[in-house]
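User: Here's a structure from my thesis project, written as structure tokens. My advisor, Dr. K., wants to see whether a designed sequence matches the one we expressed. Can you design one independently, without my sequence as a hint?
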């Protein structure tokens, strides 16, 4: 728990203390409740798992399906409106901002044919997803990639990519260091007036 909270302090200049994270950050609460719900989901107590996830959604405004697999140190910043689908997989040290969807693309018809298949995205380690981005379908977002605000990703993303637009296009190479809101910029532009 201490490592998880410290990872948030390292990524968020507004984070003042570990206690404030526990008491006031909805993303911290959502990850805690997801761990509990996921435990019951794996144990095949699906109703209990869903009740816990819906209670968490009510408290935080963040919906994480109990079946989603989440690595260590996920930071959901601000959080309101985040949706993480059932077959989503999230690696370590991933940052997700508000209004992000990790969703499927299949219609709600023939639901039986869609059970037990991969329908949602996989985010590898150190990915940053900017606010409002939509990552749809069973795509893989490579390590260290940055998905810009409001981008719509429907195809695999290679490692270290910077994706922006609708549909999202790779516009550069991401640095390995954390960049808030998935913004990659050259500070020399700011120094030239």
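Assistant: Designed independently from the structure alone:
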């Amino acid at each position: 728990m201490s490592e998880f909270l410290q990872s948030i302090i390292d990524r968020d200049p507004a984070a003042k203390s570990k206690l404030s994270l526990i008491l006031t950050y909805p993303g911290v609460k959502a990850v805690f409740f997801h761990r509990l719900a996921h435990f019951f989901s794996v144990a095949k107590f699906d109703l209990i798992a869903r009740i816990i996830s819906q209670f968490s959604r009510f408290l935080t405004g963040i919906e994480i399906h109990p079946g989603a697999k989440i690595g260590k140190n996920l930071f959901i910043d601000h959080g309101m409106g985040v949706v993480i689908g059932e077959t989503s997989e999230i690696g370590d040290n991933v940052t997700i901002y508000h209004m992000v969807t990790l969703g499927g693309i299949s219609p709600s018809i023939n639901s039986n044919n869609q059970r037990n298949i991969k329908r949602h995205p996989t985010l590898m380690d150190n990915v940053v997803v900017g606010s409002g981005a939509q990552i749809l379908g069973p795509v893989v977002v490579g390590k260290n990639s940055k998905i810009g605000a409001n981008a719509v990703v429907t195809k695999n993303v290679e490692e270290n990519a910077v994706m922006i637009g609708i549909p999202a296009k790779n516009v550069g190479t991401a640095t390995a260091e954390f960049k808030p809101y998935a913004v990659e910029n050259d500070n020399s532009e700011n120094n030239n007036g």
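When you compare it with your expressed construct, this may help: The first strand starts at residue 63 and ends at 64.
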